[in-house]
What we know:
Blueprint: H1 2-13, H2 23-39, H3 46-60, H4 64-80, H5 85-94, H6 97-112, H7 119-131, H8 136-149
Helix pairs in contact: 1-4, 1-5, 2-3, 2-4, 2-5, 2-6, 2-7, 3-4, 3-6, 6-7, 6-8
Amino acid sequence: MIDAIVKFVSELSSDEELPDFTPSRIQLAQAALMYHVIAVDGVVTDEERERMSSLLADQFGVNPGEAEQLLADAQKADGEAIDLYAFTSVLKRTLDEEQRIAIVENLWEMVFADGVVHELEDNVVWRIAELLAVSSRDRVTLKQRVRDRQP
């Protein structure tokens, strides 16, 4: 699996012909961004992992075990990635605006998952949204929407 992740990341950062973006590669790119958000503050809590696993299961229609495996693969991919562009470039090229906006909403879910909004998490969502061509207005609206849903 590590070899597949390394190959995936290297394909994304090369200037050669674009690889075939299968649903699993798109899912891994989304999951890696989600993992990056929860890990950027240096602490990944059980609440964050549980929320991410739940979102992955709901979004991709996978069972809990598959969601946990995707989370583990995302952690590895994030650790191997040089920058966020490796993931955002795949998503920007393959998803429409509405789908990219949904990704940013999921990223805000990750920020609020542990009940603490860390400034590094906020900043990384801003950078990812910019790379995905999601407007500042949409990014702020999504943050407020997710914050308002919190218990």
